[in-house]
Amino acid sequence: MIGTSLRDLPVQRHFADLGRELVDSGYQAVLLVYGPIEDASYVDPRIRVLRWPSSRPTHLADVVFFDRLIRRLKPCCVVSNFGALAIMMTIGGLRRVPVRIHWHHTLSSQIEADATDSPLMLRFLRLRARIPFSFVTHAIANSKAARQDLIAAFGVPERKCHVFWNSLEDPLTDSALALAVKAQRPSPRRFVSVGRFAPSKGQDVLVKAMGEVIRQHSDINLEFIGDGPFRVSCEELAGRLGVARNCVFTGLLPHPKVLSGMAGAWATVVPSRNEAFGLVNIESMAVGVPVIGSNTGGIAEIIRDGEDGFLFPPGDHKALAKRMMELMENEDLRAKMAANARRRFLDHFESSQAVQTQARWIIEQVRKAADGPLVPKAAASVPEQI
C-alpha cells in the first residue's frame, strides 16, 4: 500500500511507477490517494486506487478506514508520504504490518522557516511527529541532508535511515516536448527560477542579486515560475530595488511548460535557504540547462560546483550575482555545463533505473521481514471501496 496524491507531478508519478514495478514482480499494489485527483492516466490499470475519506488523511474517519483496510488485506508493506505518515505508520505498527516505510521529503528547518505557528507550537508538532516515526521499520530520505534531519529532528535510528535520491522521467522521450525544447534558443540575458514562493525558497535573495546584475547588464530578464504567499513580498522588493521591469512573475504553469521555459534559459537559479532535495535542479539538468544553486542540503549533493552549475553561499545575493554574470559572460563554459548537466541527469536521476532499484530494495525488505523465500503471498481481493 502506498499513500500518495495523484497530481501530474514527478513525485506522484514516481510512486505510481513504483507500484507498477511491484506489480510486475508479482505483488499486488494499492494506491491510497488523498486530495484532488488531477491526473490518473499514468497509473497502471492493474493497480487499485482507493481514496481516503478526507482530503488530508489526519481525521478519525481516516483512522477507521485504514485500520479496516489493514485488517482485510493484511499487507506485507505500507509506504507513507507527507500527510499520510501519522496514520499509516501508527496503525501499520499497531497492526504489525511487517514492513513500514516512510518517505521523508522536506527538512524540518524548511517547515519552520515557512511556518506561521509559534516556536512553542512547532516544537510540540516536532515532538508529536516522533510517535509515528517510532513505528517505522525503514525511513527513506531523498538526500543525505534529509537523512540527517530524520536522525536529529525525529529520533529515527541511523540503521533505519536510507537515502534514495528523487528521480524524474526523461522529459526528452516525449517527442512533442523534445521538439519544443530543441526549438528553444537559450539567451545569456534570460534566467529562470521555479518553485513555490516561501521564505525557505529564497526568491528574495535572487531579487536582490538582480539589483547587482543590472548595474552591468541592464537588459537581463528573470522569469519566476510558481506561486505562494511570499510572492507579493518579492514583487514589492523588485519594485523597491528598481528591477521590476527585469523580473517577470508568471505564476503556476503546467509541468511541460515549466520544462520548456527552463530550456530557453541560460541557467536555472535555485536560491533556497533550506532544501531537502529540490526537484527543480534535476528538471533543469534533464533539459540540459545548468543550475546556479545555494550550497545547502540536497542541492549541494546534486550540483557539482563548476561542472554542471555553480554553488553559492545561502542568502549571499552578491555571490549569486557574481555567478550569474560569470555564466552570462562565458558561452563556452555554459555549453560545457549544459552538456555535463544532461549527462549527470541520465546517469543518476533518470527514473526508470531508480524505480527498479527501489522496488527490488522494498521486496528485499519484505523477504527479510518474512525470513523466507522471495515469493509473493496470495492477497485478498482489493475492494472498490471500503
Question: Can you give a write-up of this model?
Answer:
Strand 8, helix 8 (203-213) and strand 9 (221-225) form a beta-alpha-beta unit. By secondary structure, the protein is α/β, with parallel strands linked by helices. Helix 1 (10-24) packs across helix 15 (351-370), helix 2 packs across helix 3 and helix 11 packs across helix 14 (331-348). The chain has a 6-stranded parallel β-sheet, sandwiched between helices. 45% of the residues lie in helices and 16% in strands.
Layout: helices, strands, pairs:
Elements: E1 2-4, H1 10-24, E2 30-33, E3 48-51, H2 60-73, E4 77-81, H3 85-94, E5 99-104, H4 108-114, H5 119-133, E6 138-141, H6 144-154, E7 161-163, H7 175-183, E8 187-194, H8 203-213, E9 221-225, H9 231-240, E10 247-251, H10 255-263, E11 265-270, H11 279-286, E12 291-294, H12 299-302, E13 309-312, H13 317-328, H14 331-348, H15 351-370
Parallel strand pairs: 1-2, 2-3, 4-5, 5-6, 6-7, 8-9, 8-11, 9-10, 11-12, 12-13
Helix pairs in contact: 1-15, 2-3, 3-5, 7-10, 8-9, 8-13, 11-14
In short:
With 386 residues, the protein is an alpha/beta fold.
Task: Count every beta strand, where a strand is a DSSP E run of 2 or more residues.
Answer: 13
Number of helices: 15
Instruction: Give the biggest beta sheet.
Output: 6 strands, parallel
Strand content: 15-25%
Helix content: 40-55%
Overall geometry comes to: globular
What strand order characterises the main sheet? Answer: 10-9-8-11-12-13
Order of helices and strands: EHEEHEHEHHEHEHEHEHEHEHEHEHHH
Instruction: Give the structural class.
Output: alpha/beta
Distance between the termini: 14 Å
Rg computed from alpha carbons, rounded to a whole number of angstroms = 22 Å
Low-confidence stretches: 373-379
Mean pLDDT over all positions: 92
